[in-house]
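Hi F.,

I've been meaning to write this up properly since the lab meeting, where we talked about keeping a consistent format for the predictions we share between groups. The idea is simple: the sequence comes first, exactly as it goes in, then the structure tokens exactly as they come out, then a line or two of notes. No screenshots and no reformatting. I'm using this chain as the first example so we have something concrete to point to.
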Amino acid sequence: MLQEERRINDGLGGHVTRWVDIRPLWAEITLPTGRISNVAEQLTAAVTAEIRVRPSSDFLAGRRIVSAGTAYLIEAALPNNNGSMTRLLCSSVVSP
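Output, unedited:
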């Protein structure tokens, strides 16, 4: 599922930020690589993946793809030379 973050009216005059579904999609997610880093005295695991999809103008940095309970944040969308495929370079950050 392709998602984007939106501000939604909370009914009390304020807003909340939520991930909202844009559309389902077919994708190939390659095996991720990972690293562990110490950020602000907390261990954070960062997993990176490459996701291959058919070209579309709605694959933008900052949106995310959710598959099998894992969310991948799109960092960059790179079309191939003949325009038949787009590679999405993604990251997923999980705090234990």
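Notes:
Residues 22-94 form one domain.
The chain is about 0% helix and 65% strand.

If this format works for you, I'll send the rest the same way.

G.
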